[in-house]
Amino acid sequence: MIHARRTLVAAAALLAVVVGSQGVAQARPAAEPAPPATSADPDGRLPAGWQITGARSGQQLTWRSTTPVPMGDAAVEFYSGDRLLGRPLAAKDGHTFNLALQGVALGPAKDLQVRAAGRRLDEAGIEADSRRRASKAPVKPSALPPANPVDPGVPGPYRTVSGEYELKSVKLPDFPEPVEMRAAVVAPAEAQGNRPLALFLHGRHPTCYTGGPEGELVGGWPCPTDSKPVPSHRGTLHDQKLLASQGYVTVSISANGVNGQDYLAEDGGAQARSSLVRQHLAQWANWSGAGRTSAPAIVRKAARADLSRVLLVGHSRGGEGVNRAAMDSLSEPPADQDGYRGPVRWKISGTVLIGPTIFGQNPTPDVPSMTILPGCDGDVGDLQGEIFVDGTRGVSRGAALHSAVYMVGANHNYFNTEWTPGQAEAPANDDFWVDEESPDPVCTPGTATRLTAEQQQTAGSTYIAAAAQVFVAGDDRVRPLLDGSGVSAKSAGPARVLTHAVGARRAGAFLPDPSVKVDGGRLCEQVDPDPATACLNPDEPGRSPHFAGWETEREAGRNAVALDWSTPGSAVRVQPERPVSVTGAESLALRVIVPPNTTGTRMDVSLTDTAGRRAKLGDIRLDGLPGSSQTASYWGQEVRVPLTAATTAGLDLKQVKSLELTPLSGSGKAWLIDAWGWRPGMTDVQPVSLPRVDIGRLAADEGDSGVKTYRVPVRLSGQGSGQIRLFVSDSATRETTSRVVTVRPGGENIDVPVDVPGNTRYNYGTTYNVFAKAVHDTVVGNHRGGLIVKNDDPLPTFSVSPVLSRVAEGQNLTWRITQSAVADTEIWFDAAFAPVDGAELSTTDVDPDWLGEVTGESPPPARSAAESLAPARPLSELEGLNLPIAIPPGELSTDVTIPIVADGVSEPEESLRIKLSLWTMDGERLEGPVLDGTVTDAP
Prior knowledge:
mainly beta, 939 residues, 9-stranded mixed sheet
């Protein structure tokens, strides 16, 4: 629910300076830690809206907005350029975000950025986005494709009952407060036999509110006095009623207790949400058996649930939560991190993920999934949920269908009626922000492409029901709605929905990776800040869900094929390292991106086998999705060409050597995501328990001498063997390297050593980060961990000596601050003007440009003897002072200078006083030196 506006950022910047520690449980560590000797602000300035402050949790980088930033599902992240610094914690005021800075190097201060799902939230970023906003009008929505013969959105024959239950709250790891066990049930009342169960989990939203729809949203947990919980779990009743009429027992569980505390978990609450889901499933397993008589009243009124047929539906962070629950149901998570310890008495048949987050980019490959990507998502705007499809390729057997459903004109919030204005009990808003000066041509309400709340909810219900019929009921007649076959659902109304998929009966993939040879085009990097190698130029408008970023600014192993042509006929040949087999397939299915708002991109598609026989299969035609600079519309559309011509030409379809794309359009761009041999139907999916990897985090003291070697804890579980890609941050170079590692639970452990040199010099600690991704035959639970090295040396003491502390107008006041011993890190000070005895220097006595730089205030009007005195304020009345006062690492002193102007007015002696302070590693504020200075009239 990130709701960014151009007026988002405060104008003033206050500088209190030092960096500090954070607890392991609260860690949002930097993605790429830096050496201790790196300057925290080498340019001596922070942009407007930024501070470095202290708090009980230690020193922190703080960004403050002038308008509230609503609690949302996308992770708010701080960057220095393209380097992720970490994920800050939101303060209760809804304006302020704080990032603990243990071991973090900010880099050039001018490059500080705030992002959420790739979208800039800071003032400089919003203004830059506005300047580069694409002016090209979106293409008009095309006619809906033909309707699928079977419409899953038609209500079924069953009468339904509804109600709620509330059980004793549960304690989950990392959270100090218990989490509620509350849920809304809608179920068939008189259905025969046991009925499949659909469990819904809402996303991250404010937890509490006061008043009604015009009241105020509140975060935290439990709810403060005089407020009540936001009933987010009731926001899917429209979906539940449709499924219940079709014979499904449905339950939507409340997760306010997770939302109010998930900042305490390094994974953003994914494991906690999984634990909560499985706590409810365990109750339903009991109520469907011997515990039926003790079940809540609404459960006893409902048909009995069949726990061997379970569909999990998650919205936003709830999507990541149900994905983790599916994984945890197959591969047991670490016991010390899990909030459910009982047996698994259920089987997950599939998952539905609506505008989901996937911070770990760790989908469950052997459980079928459908991911809805809202084209106007203003919260998880990078549509990172695409990784639930792309991230499964090659990981396991490929039998499970993984579908992406791109819904043009849908926003993030309106899938939940309790997040929808006019429908919700609590305050609600449209998450897609609209710049009133430059309305978005695609997503502004009222445009031809934007859906109303009711249209979006109806379309969402229809596709949730489609997934239920395919994954749970096994109805292959509905599969074409999910697998890129180009049909529509009549019940979805005017919603323009496009789909693509991997898995099911696809085989013989052309997957761009570093081993692929590309002629006539370019093997590009999906995640890379360098425009020369990146698939999409990061300096230009537009984003792709396929290229959603992760923990590192560059990521090995994620590629696509970029095509860029100025004349027709310039073929691009893609040759895998080994021949591909598409035998038994009916068609070749390609996922191809073309730029938004383009029309009529055409290409011939050809195959060549290892004997040199070549066949042109046919041509494809693509129109770009409606898009703007604010949408992630570079999305791969599925197109198919029959393999009939290849068979006629006598190609050996078991030995296909290369794929060739020949543009027929005059000029254009395109990106090949992958290509597969396709045939209709589903395969029997038998989920298996793959080897599982969970990265832990260790904390250690630095020590006074020598070098100690610590090993990052990497937990292996399950059976068999597989491969992961392991990413390790280098604290000396700020580079992250990666390597493919073989995983054998019960065999050798994955060794990640970190050498920590000890000394007696003060520093702010160092963070080393390790990340993991599944490559083959593995799953990854906790994807990030590492080592936090804590400083164990005392803070130096400080003194001040005047250099020029008594000067005439027109000269500079200067002092020297000296510390008792060198430190390994830059030590910064807070600075504040204080009242003096006698006449005090005012805002008109100092250089006006300097005043603007260090306070964020506009300089006052000039004054001279010939003019009346301009308005002036004593310096002690200024609320913030952004003086760049720091002692560099390895040095003992620094000078502080204040420029004084000569105004030509006869005045008595005037003075100033600056009080310095700093923060300890424990969050204690220490009084520092005091700078006193006196100014006389110019001679």
